[in-house]
Amino acid sequence: MGQQGEPRRVQAYDGELGAAVARAQEGDEAAFAVAYRIVQPGLLGYLRGLVGNDAEDVASDAWLEIARDLGRFKGDGAGFRGWTATIARHRALDHLRRQKVRPRATALENDVLDLPGPHSTYEQAVESLATQQALQLVARLPRDQAEAVLLRVVVGLDGPAAARVLGKRPGAVRTAAHRGLKRLARLLGGEGVTDEGPQTLGESR
């Protein structure tokens, strides 16, 4: 893991991503394809948590907006991740409103949050988040925790960037991510994954 809890893999690609975005803004279509390949996996994982099986459709809408407004973006590779995540989140919320879908509430037991878990299990929670099973587990978290975890670990944003996407204070996002990862560690370590439960994020309250 890199600083602030982001995967080293994400950090390593940010230089390449920033260069690709700069070329894409000059009209290089191949460079835009490079940026898409770097960003899309994490963005799609985030959207799966928000809208479930409609993630690919919402991602397509988001990328249309990203391509349209690319010239307005200013920043580096990490900034581009945050910008695209913000657009994707807006499109996901629009989609949920259109479908009149309300994510089902998920209770989070306070005693579980206070249980110390083995470090290896915590790391397993982080490293497994790209898998479909882990996304099913994330969907069982309260919405604020689930979004914080997805933005920090799957999309690869740092605390301040994730906070900007969510419109919250960085400290609140760090706390939500920490609690969410502790809950995931508990689920991965003892409860496993079932096919039951919500397919989109639970409510934060």
TrEMBL record:
<dbReference type="InterPro" id="IPR036388">
    <property type="entry name" value="WH-like_DNA-bd_sf"/>
</dbReference>
<dbReference type="InterPro" id="IPR013325">
    <property type="entry name" value="RNA_pol_sigma_r2"/>
</dbReference>
<dbReference type="InterPro" id="IPR013249">
    <property type="entry name" value="RNA_pol_sigma70_r4_t2"/>
</dbReference>
<protein>
    <submittedName>
        <fullName>RNA polymerase sigma factor</fullName>
    </submittedName>
</protein>
<dbReference type="InterPro" id="IPR039425">
    <property type="entry name" value="RNA_pol_sigma-70-like"/>
</dbReference>
<dbReference type="InterPro" id="IPR007627">
    <property type="entry name" value="RNA_pol_sigma70_r2"/>
</dbReference>
<keyword id="KW-0805">Transcription regulation</keyword>
<dbReference type="Pfam" id="PF08281">
    <property type="entry name" value="Sigma70_r4_2"/>
</dbReference>
<keyword id="KW-0731">Sigma factor</keyword>
<dbReference type="InterPro" id="IPR013324">
    <property type="entry name" value="RNA_pol_sigma_r3/r4-like"/>
</dbReference>
<dbReference type="Pfam" id="PF04542">
    <property type="entry name" value="Sigma70_r2"/>
</dbReference>
<comment type="similarity">
    <text>Belongs to the sigma-70 factor family. ECF subfamily.</text>
</comment>
<feature type="domain" description="RNA polymerase sigma-70 region 2">
    <location>
        <begin position="36"/>
        <end position="100"/>
    </location>
</feature>
<dbReference type="InterPro" id="IPR014284">
    <property type="entry name" value="RNA_pol_sigma-70_dom"/>
</dbReference>
<keyword id="KW-0804">Transcription</keyword>
<feature type="domain" description="RNA polymerase sigma factor 70 region 4 type 2">
    <location>
        <begin position="132"/>
        <end position="184"/>
    </location>
</feature>
